[in-house]
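seq:
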Amino acid sequence: MSETSAARAGRLSPASPAFAKSARNRALEEDKALNRRVLGIIGGSGVYDIAGLEGAVWKEVKSPWGTPSDALLCGRYAGVDLVFLPRHGRGHVQTPSSINYRANIDALKRAGVTDVISISACGSLKEELAPGTFVMVDQFIDRTFARDKSFFGPGCVAHVPMAHPVCPQLTLKLQEAAAAENIRHAVGGTYICMEGPQFSTLAESHLYRAWGCSVVGMTAMPEAKLAREAELPYAVVAMVTDYDCWHPEHEHVTVDAVLKVLDANAANARKLVCAVAVRLGPERQPSPLGIERVLDVALMTAPERRDPALVAKLDAVAGRVLKG
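struct:
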């Protein structure tokens, strides 16, 4: 239960000095806990681990939302704590639809992660975004339909803003790191997320281009939405592997063609992760979007009507505002 909720329950008056002092103290404690960065990396196709981490160890993290894709690889690079999660599991055992996105984000939150960078293999919908290009997208269109898309639900309703779904601070550092490592990249653009696992039809590919989308992938949604609900600043790097099927000189997407590009992309992704960790550093600044406190104004359900079972499952994701 938040301090505001406690006040409504008659424990403190919002106008009282005691309430104000308690709220300030809690905010200071929360801000202090977020001062040290723990960088979460979600690896996409071809990126199943990160070499060179100090004290690297795989840790199993249990989640009330089910089983995450894999254990978490925890270590340190350049003084920055890193927590790596292979989205498809080591050996690529999960399909885009079978990934437990809620468990993945919850596990990262439980591991103390403060910021998330996602790596995602994608098809290009623009001529200038050739295979091998890393795109730091800033918008999404969600066309998935078979996935659990929220931690909240009946008994504890919340609505978080998604107008600006990625953290500009993380994107800027990714851009700087890519430039320093001579990785071909582009900044900005829309990622359309399809359900898959099949690739696009030609009609779909042309439709996505008509909508002005930059890349098409299968995994950034609902991942970005869940990260926002968990108050985790999030950015995604779309690694272009192909031209989808719209391009007259590349009419068919095949696994063989994708795999040829994936190896090079994976090597660059590992370089990018290490370089961005150096630029971000161990001490963090809050997201300019205020993502770390987005739940302050998102909860709709009155405290006395909240489902205790659901609230218990939300202990990591939303415990900051739900704890009494």
